[in-house]
Known about the structure:
Radius of gyration: 21 Å
Oligomer: single chain
Number of strands: 9
Low-confidence stretches: 1-14
Number of helices: 16
CATH architecture: Orthogonal Bundle
Largest sheet: 5 strands, mixed
Strand content: 5-15%
Mean pLDDT: 94
Amino acid sequence: MADTEPTAQQPQASGQPAAVPLPTERSCPFSPADGYRVLREQGVARLAFPSGPLGWVVTRHADAKALLTDTRFSARQEGLVPPVPSELHYAAPAEPGAFAKTDDPQHSHYRKLLTGFFTVRRVREMLPLIERVTREQLDRLAEAGPGADLVEHFAEPLPARVMGEFLGIPEADLEPLQRHVNALGNITSTIPEAITAITGLGEFLGSFVPPLIETPDEGPVGDLVRTGKVDDKELMNLVSTMINGGLDTTGNMLAQGVFALLQHPDQLALLREGPELMDGAVEELLRYLTISHLGASRWALEDTEFGGRQVKQGEVVVVALGAANRDPERFADADRLDLTRADHSHLAFGHGSHQCLGQHLARATLSVAWRGLLDRFPDLQLAVPAEQITMRENYVHYGPLALPVSWTREVR
Length: 412
């Protein structure tokens, strides 16, 4: 049934494809929504947004790369609309410092202030921190015992603690921050729930940042203060951006990767037998699983042609990253998980100037965490049937809400 999910929603002019809702139903928790297979045949397909306007969806790898580097399309917040039913629609321009939903020159100005914190060299220097936190979270998972939720005791807190220590955030503050970030990532959150989360984040930032402005520390926040290039509001939004990045995506990918490996025992065996495969395995899992549930959106700054379609000014184009990463024209046997795959040109971190700022940190965290988990628990397995795993279907980023795991052997 899911393969036939796209159905005509509004009549179109002659020669135009019928508008369909964004596909979200998945027959397999490791694959993009089934409906993308139909849409890929159209190239750039007509999309019907819940709020009424029409837009487009891009599902092919080449089109996705082209769109994400096309300056005729904007990432500015005020022109975007949710591609699925949601009360969370931010029609105003992004605040100063919240650069993810801006264009140049604002975007590049703020991004450059953070780039130096997430280079390959800086991430390499963070490896002892990542390794220590991984060991500590493995101890906490072991203490919880077989049947424990991997999300609660390992996948979610691990990257949160890494980012927290990096920024100097006390561990006691991470759990409430995680709740706020989760609420804002839930597309079914109500406006009051979103306001509560935004208020909670604001209250934390209001207590955390001002002392560092007064007396800068030796960490990233202190470094930003010492540049003299940001005011208080900009600094709070830059810190908020790093918090959201650290407490959302990597944890979901970490849990989803474990789930996928446990359901692909042949690939798990390859990784156990060949630890040198880990770097490539990280890339393949990122491609195969692509946790961006709703993709990346841009809106047209002018009437233009793209992918053989006439796109009107203001129309939103959704780039389905997961579908692009399963494009059979780009990846051989695209729907197969192959940890020995050499082609790592996936778009899991996006593409172009808005490509994920923390991608090197995410890669390092995933590599250390997966290796540590597999070494510590050689016979790790699901504690419940796979069909009982509830997925984050209503979130911006996909993955298991909980992942009960079990083991009989532990190697310290």
